[in-house]
Amino acid sequence: MALALIADVMDITGETYSDDETWRLNNLLHIASREIKVFTGQKLERVSHTWKTPFRTKLLLPQGPDPEITTVRDLDGNDVTYSFNGYDTIYISNPGLVQFDLEPFFYSFGTLITVNYIAGYEFIPDDLKAICVQMALRAYGANPLQSGKTQESVTNYSYQQGQAAAAGAIGMLPMEQAALLPYKRFGRSIRTARA
Fold it and tell me: Rg (Cα) of the chain, in Å, rounded?
């Protein structure tokens, strides 16, 4: 799902687009959205997540913001006793189960815990939309051979390249990355964040 729509592009540029232009811009908005999600490690829009993780007494949810826990279960589908700090951390009690013979059962660190939850923005923040639109428009209007020339000169030596070349075909410029830092989830790997 794109973080910004053609309507957002039209609001920013004040222009209308043909069907072909709309098709191309839609593709670029989706690509820009994917780049933003990879950089932040977040899906950002409000969706359901199923996260399987080895048992620990403290679990940091890989996706946010505003998580709403649906279920926390062990490998056998039994409900696990937990508490939630309302932000990003689940605390699991151990022992979590008492077997039929009333012997306590302790979770081991090899036990898988499955957390089902909903997280993300109900409405995408305006600054995220603006960055997405900016990246898409830059790629839309960029001539691959002439894009955004920057130049550096030292004495008799001069070096010049397109600004987009440093960022990739539809990559992020340093100022865009800086603006996205508040949305980034630190301390979580990309693999975990995409779980």
Answer: 23
